[in-house]
Amino acid sequence: MSATPNGTPANGNGAAGGYKWHNKYPHLGTGPVSADVFTSQEQFELERERIFKKVWLNVGRVERIPNPGDYFVQDLAVCNTSVIVVRGKDGAVHAFHNMCSHRGNKIAWDQGGTCQNFTCKFHGWSYGLDGKLKFVPDEESFFDLKKETLGLTRVAVDVWEGFIFINVDPNPTETLPEYLGDLATGLEGYPFGEFSTTSTSWTSEVNANWKVIKDAFQEVYHIAFLHKRSIPDSFTSKDNPYAHSLDVTLYPRHGSMSLFGSADYKPSPVAKLAAQHGEIVIRSDFSMDGLPAGVNPLRSEAWSLDLNVIFPAFFVDVSQGSYFTHQFMPIGVDKTLWTSTQYYTRATTPGRRFSQEYGNVIFRDIIMEDGRTFEETQSMLSSGAKKEFYLHDEEILVRHSHHVIDQMLKGQPVDAAFAANGKEAASHA
Ligand code: FES
Ligand SMILES: [Fe+2]
Question: Domain 20-37+189-428, what architecture?
Answer without folding.
Answer: Alpha-Beta Complex (3.90)
